[in-house]
Amino acid sequence: MIEAEAGMGKSRMIDELHRQADAMRVLTLAGTGDAVEQITPYYAWRKVFLHILEQEGAHESDAQRDWVLNRLGPNPAIRDRAPVLNAVMPMELPETDVSLQMTAQVRAETIRALCIQLLNSFIAGVPAALMV
Fold first, then answer.
1. Residue 35 phi, psi (nearest 5)
2. How far apart are CA 128 and CA 101, in angstroms?
3. Band of the pLDDT at 36, cuts 50, 70, 90?
4. Alpha helices, DSSP H only, in 27-88?
5. Cα separation, 70 vs 50, whole angstroms
6. Rounded distance, CA 37 to CA 124, Å?
7. Average pLDDT of the chain?
8. Strand 128-131 relative to strand 27-30: parallel, antiparallel, unpaired?
9. Cβ burial 35-65 (10 Å sphere, 16+ → b, else e)
C-alpha cells in the first residue's frame, strides 16, 4: 500500500512500476479511485474488470455477461450469485432469488469471492501485477 500527501511522487512511482512490468512482459491490471465516485462501492475495481473484458474482446454488454458467466462455470449455485457483480461491472445481470436474499455481509463476501475467481481465471498462471 502506498500512501502519501499530494505531490510526493505516488503517480510517478506507479508509472515506473507499470513501465518495468511492461518491460518484463508482466500483465498489468490497474484500477483507480475518483474523488467524485469515492462513495461508490468497488469503483476502483471497475477499471480492472473493464480492462479484462476489453482484452477478452467483450465490448458489448451481452458479450460481457457471457464472458463472466462462462468464467464462473456451469454451477447453478454460483450463477445464482453472479448478479452481485453488477456492483463491480455494469452488466445488468438480473437478480435471482438467491442474490435478492443475501445480507449485506454475504453480498460483500460473494462479490470478493467471485472477483477473485474471475481474476484467477483471466490470469491463469501468467505473471501479473495488480495495482488498485
1. -60, -35
2. 35
3. low
4. 43-55, 61-72, 76-79
5. 16
6. 31
7. 88
8. parallel
9. eeeeeeebbbbbbbbbebbeebebeeeeebb
